[in-house]
């Protein structure tokens, strides 16, 4: 980790957080460059919201240090930090109209009223709420209230904007439009955004850089394309997008065996005969004739997904394949599949399937976040 902290908007150095004997964060190191869109991604309870609260000053670490713009903010209260937070539940003042909600922070700072009017107008223009100044927030839709909350945050011109699952309560269409709005806002403002979500689609669509979290640790970080195409382990592969994950054996550099066949791959540097897993994305599987197939599968179920059909298939070993295609087939059809070397990603095997499956089941039950 670099010691030149002033080049970053936010730095966490060796940060740990405990609640009683429960270690929520485990020696987190994190550097956020100025002017980028970052996402903390993971299931409930992984610690992503705790990181946000440490940056905001709502919590203090038990170990480690938090820096904002190169300054250690360990003794700086939340209201003195150059950050603002947009919450999932909006946290608007119900007795105030839109203008008064957005202007509140500037009023507290005793800003000149003419400047307040100018800045509120700019902020509302940015979130497409020009003309809503006198509207009571109780009369607004969820999407409109969220935009008011964003305007209230950006009007203070923070160095860092923290967003704690701000879109989770919105319907799908509105959520997608808000994704575009937030991405455009970040580009226009040029400040650092830190976005917390458990939705991998949001993370992939919006982020410059993603931190994938599990059990209080950052397990992988990088640009969205790297996280999606090169997951470090089964947990990341399953959490980021849909995957076919198969037990495999490394035969040699660029050679891996699974489903009873040796395939060319793009990975090297793994010991010969080492137990590994391979991940193959459903959209990367090519359907071919049975005679030309690497593997023959039988279609058990077909799910219409709008822009593609999802085929659920089984091979001779009863492995359940998921394949995305625009071609039309019937349940019960035998089809051939072929997989190119660049679409086979080899991962080291590091955890028991039992432990992995238990954690995925726990996530599916929607436990509260940490």
TrEMBL record:
Alphabetic keyword roster: ATP-binding, Cell membrane, Membrane, Nucleotide-binding, Translocase, Transport
Spans traversing the lipid bilayer: none
Q: Does the keyword Transport apply?
A: yes
- Annotated catalysed reactions: ATP + H2O + polyamine-[polyamine-binding protein]Side 1 = ADP + phosphate + polyamineSide 2 + [polyamine-binding protein]Side 1
Reply yes or no: does the keyword Repeat apply: no
What general EC class does the enzyme of this chain belong to? translocase
One Gene Ontology MF term: ATP hydrolysis activity
Gene Ontology cellular-component terms listed: ATP-binding cassette (ABC) transporter complex
Q: Name one Pfam family in it.
A: ABC_tran
Q: Recorded E.C. number(s)?
A: 7.6.2.11
Under SUPFAM superfamilies, the record lists:
MOP-like (SSF50331), P-loop containing nucleoside triphosphate hydrolases (SSF52540)
Q: InterPro entries of this UniProt entry?
A: AAA+_ATPase, ABC_SmlMolc_Importer, ABC_transporter-like_ATP-bd, ABC_transporter-like_CS, Mo/tungstate-bd_C_term_dom, P-loop_NTPase, PotA-like, PotA_ATP-bd
Annotated ABC transporter domain residues: 10-240
Function in brief: Part of the ABC transporter complex PotABCD involved in spermidine/putrescine import. Responsible for energy coupling to the transport system.
Family per similarity comment = Belongs to the ABC transporter superfamily. Spermidine/putrescine importer (TC 3.A.1.11.1) family.
Subunit and interaction comment: The complex is composed of two ATP-binding proteins (PotA), two transmembrane proteins (PotB and PotC) and a solute-binding protein (PotD).
Protein name listed in UniProt: Spermidine/putrescine import ATP-binding protein PotA
- What high-level taxonomic lineage is stated for the organism? Bacteria, Bacillati, Bacillota, Tissierellia, Tissierellales
């Amino acid at each position: 980790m670099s010691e030149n902290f002033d080049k970053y908007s936010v730095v966490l150095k060796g940060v740990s957080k405990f609640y009683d004997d429960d270690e929520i964060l485990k020696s987190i190191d994190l550097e956020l460059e100025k002017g980028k869109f970052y996402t903390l991604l993971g299931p409930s309870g992984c610690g992503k919201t705790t990181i946000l609260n440490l940056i905001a000053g709502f919590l203090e670490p038990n170990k480690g240090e938090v820096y904002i713009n190169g300054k250690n903010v360990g003794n700086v209260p939340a209201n003195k930090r150059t950050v603002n937070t947009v919450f999932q539940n909006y946290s608007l003042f119900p007795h105030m109209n839109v203008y008064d909600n957005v202007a509140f922070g500037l009023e507290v700072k005793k800003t000149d009223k003419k400047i307040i009017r100018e800045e509120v107008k700019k902020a509302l223009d940015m979130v497409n709420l020009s003309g809503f100044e006198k509207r009571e927030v109780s009369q607004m839709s969820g999407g409109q209230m969220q935009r008011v909350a964003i305007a209230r945050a950006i009007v203070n011109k923070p160095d860092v904007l923290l967003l704690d699952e701000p879109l989770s309560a919105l319907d799908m269409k509105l959520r997608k439009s808000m994704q575009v709005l937030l991405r455009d806002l970040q580009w226009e403002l040029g400040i650092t955004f830190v976005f917390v979500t458990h939705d991998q689609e949001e993370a992939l669509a919006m982020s410059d850089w993603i931190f994938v979290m599990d059990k209080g640790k950052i397990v992988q970080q990088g640009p969205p394309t790297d996280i999606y195409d090169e997951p470090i382990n089964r947990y990341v592969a399953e959490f980021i997008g849909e995957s076919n994950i198969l037990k495999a054996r490394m035969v040699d550099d660029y050679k891996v065996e699974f489903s009873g066949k040796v395939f060319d791959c793009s990975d090297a540097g793994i010991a010969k005969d080492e137990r590994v897993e391979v991940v193959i994305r459903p959209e990367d599987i090519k359907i071919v004739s049975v005679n030309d197939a690497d593997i023959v599968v039988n279609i058990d179920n077909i799910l219409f997904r709008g822009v593609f059909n999802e085929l659920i298939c089984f091979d001779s070993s009863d492995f359940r394949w998921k394949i995305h295609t625009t071609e039309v087939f019937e349940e019960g059809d035998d089809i051939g599949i072929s997989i190119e070397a660049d679409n086979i990603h080899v991962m080291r095997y590091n955890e028991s399937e039992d432990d992995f499956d238990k954690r995925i089941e726990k996530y599916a039950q929607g436990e509260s976040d940490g």
